[in-house]
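Before relying on records like the one below, remember that each one covers exactly one chain. Contacts with other chains, cofactors or solvent are not represented anywhere in the record.
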Amino acid sequence: MRRTARISLTAVSVLTLGLGLASCTGDSSQDKENKAKQDGYDQLVARQPAGLMEYSPTREAINQWVETWGKRGKLSYVYIQNAKGEYGYFVMKGLPVPRCKMLTPTERVETRSQGVAVLPQPGMDGTYSAGSMCHAYYGFDATTGAYMEFTVGTNQSFFLFDKPMAMPEYAGAEQLGPTSIKDAGAQS
């Protein structure tokens, strides 16, 4: 009787272990679909490998951006267009900065026994943000240093230049900040 029970228990253990291993290595529908996707990708890459560029216009544009804006005191000319198509402008020191940009990490990753947790961190002002201020920009006036903030979004756009624009649509732009284009030209 004991021997039969032991054999039965051993058989159940082997069967359970076998089923467990089969489910780990599994041929689930999802595994089959993932394998089919990967096989298809591998075939396409073999037939159509990615080309190699001799020159990258994207890298050149980024380097030119760095060269343009990487200078202390560089002025930016921010033209804002409202829903009526009317333009106004600010002249700022440096670039306008989205309010959602931070100098410190906005999240902290902690490893816990249950897994990894991503926790919010307070901002520079000691408060937490929902990250919804990316449509608001701020900066400082070119001659007075006055803080300026503006929002863009529904029915309002902004255009950023490193020089004043002479195009007809900007010719009648209303001065919105303390510094005029004429004042900025005298400063340069």
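Residues 2-25 form the longest helix (24 residues).
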